[in-house]
Amino acid sequence: MPSFYPVFLNVEGRRCVVIGGGQIAEGKVLKLIESGAKIIVISPDATKGIRDAAERGQVEFHLRKYEAGDLQGAFIAIAATNDPVVNQEIFQEAESQGILLNAVDDPPRCSFIAPAIVERGPVTLAISTGGASPALARKLRENLDGSAELDWADATNVLSRARQIIKDKQVAVDPQRWQCYMTPELLSLAQSGREDEALEQLMAGLLGNDAQDRCSNIGECVSGGCQYRNSTTGNSAGSRGRMPQTAGD
To answer: Long-range contacts of range 86-93, CB-CB < 8 Å, 24 or more positions apart?
Structure first.
């Protein structure tokens, strides 16, 4: 089983060829449409969804079987034929031209695989088992789809604005400090539409010397977590514990 390298591809305006016209192919086509790809579908038959997309001008549809040369100029290709012989022919053409290929349910003939996707606004989680168990990937996707952790996607705009301000100011902020100030209060402000207040609160924490007893000294923001007041035990500012955090912004 290959060990796949996880990556998100920018296919906007790029030629993407889909061989096959069934339900699985339709799902691939719809996702490519969302991503702004230039889509060519080749199949002797196709679902109503693919035909409708072709009528709307979202897809270039060729009503025939695959032929050698169909991948010419493609950025990526998807083989959804259920025919291992045809898949092999497509794979050989893709390999010879250096074209990324996803052969559905055929990992040995894939140069990339399509993960299970969880989306919340601009946030996308991709789940893969490396082709070992699509059922497990789906199970994880369904469980994560209802996770309260995805509520943080609602704060994406605030966090993006803060990141741009930090870049414009050309200052260094320890990744732990971001984690320390991504608080429930910040999320609540963002979700209630008070993004400017949320941004002000976040920036005060990221750039301030002392706020809410967290990171009283920016030098304390090191791998392992920011120091903070243990309000549940009533400890004083001089008796603080460690809050483990995850690096990154």
So the answer is: 86/19, 90/19, 90/66, 93/68, 93/69
Of 240, 247, 159, 245, nearest to 206 by C-alpha is 159
DSSP string, 185-227: HHHHHHHTT-HHHHHHHHHHHHH-S-BTTB-SSGGG-BTTB-E
Pair of tokens at residue 72: 């010419």
Report DSSP state, residue 108: G
Every domain range in the chain assigned CATH 3.30.160 = 115-146
15-114 has CATH 1.10.1040.10 classification? no
Looking at the chain, the domain(s) classified CATH 3.40.50.720 span: 15-114
Report which residue type is found at 83.
D
Q: What would the pLDDT profile of 22-70 be if each residue is shown by its tens digit?
A: 999 999 999 999 999 999 999 999 999 999 999 999 999 999 999 999 9
CB atoms within 10 A of CB 147: 11
Question: Residue 241 pairs with which residues in a beta bridge?
Answer: 228
| Alpha helices by DSSP H, 56-117 | 84-97
Q: Is the pTM of this model over 0.85?
A: no
Domain 115-146: which CATH number of 3.30.160, 3.30.70, 3.40.1000, 3.40.50: 3.30.160
